[in-house]
Design goal:
alpha+beta, five-stranded mixed β-sheet, two-stranded antiparallel sheet
Length: about 300
């Protein structure tokens, strides 16, 4: 066999070997990608379990991915257990405090009906006020914790804004009337996507704040403005306004402005309103200048 006849045969063998190696590499890479895809599908369903893999270099990626997904699965289980524990704790706090607070209010009302000296009546009034404040605080903390941990889920759907404005205004009407404040909800035919129960509570917190800090004889106005993606609900008051340095702080939990120390409150209403807005894809803003009143704006999404 001559050299001229051997060289073509060797070339064919090399070509076949190269094709075979390329095919083997392609199949192995395809198997690895299929395995990774299956891992991600299992992780998405929450039933990922780590398996044994060989020690080849291509399999190293599979092994690292398996370790990552396994650690994520453990973290997800731990998070679910912590949420269950928090849910139980919240339920216990709500249940265990409801009866004692109700009893405090009942006994305070009974004492008010007794023939007490004037100074004692002042003590009873203070006791009732503090019990009411404690009940509000516990309720607000329970609601906030349930929202933060996902125990309570909101169900936003498309609704008209007119009923939302009227419901929030009607809840705040007695306080506004007591201070001779003109409380107005301007008519609107706009619609947005929101949970009526929770959003009414968020908007009421804004209106209640406006009434609380507006001097007697002032005005509080609710109006809705439509945009392409959002609806904006403005709560405008003729109160003292908020300094710019404090505007970023007022939505923090338990924040109380030094200038508002004389007013009743625990500093959680605006925080709760912001949590409710964020939970529905919305947000809150404030525009204010000292001496010129404030406008709190609740933005709600219009699109699905």
């Amino acid at each position: 066999m001559t050299l001229e006849s051997i060289l073509p045969a060797l070339a064919i063998l090399v070509l076949l070997a190269a094709v075979g190696f390329a095919l083997w590499t392609h199949l192995r890479t395809r198997r690895m990608l299929d395995t990774l895809d299956q891992m991600l599908d299992d992780a998405t369903r929450g039933d990922f379990q780590e398996s044994l893999y060989d020690e080849s270099r291509l399999s190293a990626l599979e092994t690292r991915m398996a370790h990552y997904l396994a650690s994520n699965a453990v973290s997800a289980r731990n998070l679910a257990e912590e949420k269950d524990a928090i849910k139980t704790l919240i339920g216990d706090i709500s249940h265990q405090t409801k009866t004692p607070i109700a009893n405090l209010l009942l006994y305070a009302q009974l004492l008010e009906e007794q023939d007490l000296p004037p100074e004692s009546r002042g003590y009873v009034s203070a006791l009732e006020g503090q019990a009411e404040k404690l009940r509000f605080l516990i309720d607000a903390l329970v609601k906030t914790s349930r929202l933060e941990t996902g125990v309570l889920a909101m169900t936003p759907k498309r609704h008209g804004l007119q009923q939302l404005l009227e419901d929030a205004a009607s809840q705040a009407a007695p306080k506004a009337e007591a201070k001779d404040i003109v409380l107005t909800a301007e008519p609107t035919d706009l619609t947005a996507k929101f949970d009526p129960k929770w959003t009414t509570e968020a908007l009421y917190n804004l209106v209640d704040n406006a009434v609380k800090y507006t001097p007697a004889g002032g005005r509080v106005t609710l109006r809705a403005v439509g945009y392409e993606l959002f609806c904006r609900i403005d709560v405008t008051d003729t109160g003292p306004g908020i300094p710019e340095a404090e505007q970023a702080k007022i939505f923090q939990r338990f924040y109380r402005s030094p200038s508002a120390s004389e007013e009743e409150g625990v500093g959680i209403g605006l925080y709760l309103a912001r949590q409710i807005a964020a939970g529905q894809g919305g947000y809150l803003k404030v525009a204010s200048r000292p001496g010129e009143g404030s406008t709190f704006s609740l933005f709600l999404p219009r699109a699905e």
